[in-house]
Amino acid sequence: MFTTLIQAAELAQLQSTATPLVVFDCSFDLANPAAGQAQFEDTHLAGARYVHLDQDLSAHGGSVALGTAASGGRHPLPTREQVGHWMQAQGLTPETQVVVYDRQGVNYCGRLWWMLKWAGHEAVAVLDGGLQAWQAMSGPVASGPSQQAHIPTVYPLPASAAALLTLAEVQSNLNQPTRQLIVDARGGPRYRGEVEPLDPIAGHIPGAINRPFTENFGPDGRFKPATVLRQEFAQLLGDADAATVVHQCGSGVSAVPNLLAMEWAGLGRTRLFAGSWSEWSNTPGTPVAKG
Question: Is 249 annotated in the active site?
């Protein structure tokens, strides 16, 4: 079972076995929401299915206002039950090995990795290096629309294997470093409040520290070795217990590479504030720090 990362060669070998396997392409572009599907239809890993960040991995319409979303923010999470229904529609079973990838440096596929963990499905891994690593190995690719030839299943949700924090929980733990250390995955200028291209207020959650998610990768687009990541996070966290870490970004999507990197480094599965800065900055009365 692959539960964190899978290398391109390992995926190719897995495809030659009888292991139930589903591969999802999560490519996306925040500036052009139609671009990811167009990229998929141009070139994708042979046999992969396309998953859309807005349509498949986020709650729809007025779900937040109606209380039927699991988080706020620009990309509110569906409820665990809704994720379970989606898994059943995809034909997943507890025995299915899921592999997710994108072509944007794990910026988007980590969302599905985390959601499936949250729904209790442990057998899900990120293709290290994404589509580029697969193509570099001359792995088979295809073009055209996503093929959805699968039979729906009955998959009762097991216990959650990932921890989601609400805005209220993050608020209640402010200024309590023994309970919460927030790691902000946005770029330095957004964290410091120098610019804010997407949300109404610039800055960061008081007490948060900054680690841009892009720092987890080497020049080849793959995650750094686990030993290197462990050293980097140890330096970042200082005396703080890794178990207190809460990850956030702009809308809860690009925070996941930090969470995955910590798990890959052997530091355990840490927590996610999915509403992130987009929910925090849109909530009246929440404090803001800059610098």
Answer: yes
pLDDT tens, residue by residue, 103-138: 999 999 999 999 999 999 999 999 999 999 999 999
Which of 249, 253, 262, 267 is labelled catalytic? 249
Q: What does the pLDDT look like over 277-288, one tens digit per residue? A: 999 999 999 999
Helix axes 226-237, 256-264, angle to 10 degrees: 110
Residue-wise burial string across 145-173, b where 16 or more C-beta atoms lie within 10 A, e elsewhere: eeeeeeeeeebebeeebbebbebeebeeb
Confidence class for position 67, pLDDT limits 50, 70, 90: low
The span from the CA of 38 to the CA of 237, in Å, is 40
Q: What are phi and psi of 141, to 5 degrees?
A: -125, 165
**Token digits of residue 231:** 């050293």
- Does the pTM surpass 0.85? The reply is yes
- Give me the phi and psi of 245, to 5 degrees please: -70, 135
8-state DSSP, 224: P
Please provide the DSSP assignment of 74-137 as one string.
SSPPPPHHHHHHHHHHTT--TTPEEEEE-SSTTTTHHHHHHHHHHTT---EEEETTHHHHHHHT
Domains of the chain and any CATH numbers: 5-142 (3.40.250.10), 167-280 (3.40.250.10)
